[in-house]
Amino acid sequence: MKPWTLGLTGGICSGKSAVAAHFVKLGIDLVDSDQAARWVVEPGRPALAAIAEHFGEQVLQGDGQLNRATLRELIFTSPAERRWLESLLHPLIAEEVAQFLAKATSPYAITMSPLLIESGQYKLAQRILVVDVPEHVQIERTMQRDRLSAEQVRAIMAAQATRETRLSYADDVLTNDRDLAWMQSEVERLHAFYLTLNGGQP
Q1: Is residue 17 marked as binding?
Q2: N or C: which end of the chain has fewer CB atoms below 10 A?
Q3: Is residue 63 predicted with pLDDT exceeding 90?
Q4: Which residues are listed for ATP binding in this entry (predicted)?
Q5: 16 labelled as ligand-binding?
C-alpha cells in the first residue's frame, strides 16, 4: 500500500530539523525541500543552465557550481527576479519531492519545507504537522544560532507565513518549547497515532 504523506513545517528555529531527525530514527522516509532545492541546481541539471543564461556567468563559481551568495544578492534587491527564479524552481522542487514520495516505503512519508504553506507544497500532503514555538523563543534561538539582531530575525520571519496562517493549516501541532527529551516523546506519541491512520485520516 502506498504510504500517505505528512507535511512538516514550522517557522525559523522552531526545531523542525530535530523533529524530522527523530521521525527518521523511527524509520520514516523523509524528503527535505531545502535538499531538493540544492539537487535541482546541481551542475548538469537544466535549472542551472537556465539560471546562468538568465543572470549571466556571474552566478557560476569557477567549478561550475551555483554561486548562491551572488544569486541571493541579485534576487534580494529585485522582487521580479525572485519571482522569475521561484517560477523556474518551485515546479522542479515539487517534482523531486513527488518522485521521492512515490518511492517511499515507510507506512507514511514526510515532506518537510519551511515554506510548505507559501509554496503550495502542502497540497502534496494528506495531513499537516506544524512545529510551533512562541515568537520570542524563535527570535532568541535565531539570534543565538545565526548571530543576528532581533530586527534581522523579525525581517526573516516577516517573509514567512505568519504563525497564525501556519497554524490554520495544521492538523497537528507540536509545541517545541521544552527540552529535547520532551520533544522526542511528542514525536513518538504522534508516530504511534500516525501508524493507526488510513491515508492520513483517523
Answers
A1: yes
A2: N
A3: yes
A4: 13-18
A5: yes
Q: Could you tell me the residue ranges of all domains in the chain?
A: 1-28+106-202, 38-96
Q: Give pLDDT, residue 143.
A: 94
Beta bridge partners of 29: 109
| The three three-digit cell numbers of residue 199, written as one number | 491515508
Residue of 111, 130, 121 whose CA lies nearest to 6: 111
Whole-number pLDDT of residue 169: 97
Residues 11 and 157 sit within 8 Å (Cβ to Cβ):
yes
Q: How far apart are CA 202 and CA 197, in angstroms?
A: 5
Is 119 annotated in a binding site? The answer is no
Coil, helix or strand at residue 9: strand
Kindly state the cell numbers that stand for 171: 492538523
Tell me the pLDDT band of 78, cut-offs 50, 70 and 90.
confident
106 is in an annotated binding site: no
* Confidence grade of residue 53 (pLDDT, cut at 50, 70, 90): very high
1-28+106-202 CATH fold? Rossmann fold (3.40.50)
80 is in an annotated binding site: no
Q: How many CB atoms lie within 10 A of CB 130?
A: 25
Query: Could you tell me which residues are beta bridge partners of residue 30?
Result: 110
The residue-averaged pLDDT of 109-134 equals 93
Q: Which of 143, 141, 128 is nearest to 174 (CA)?
A: 128
Q: Which amino acid is at 169?
A: Y
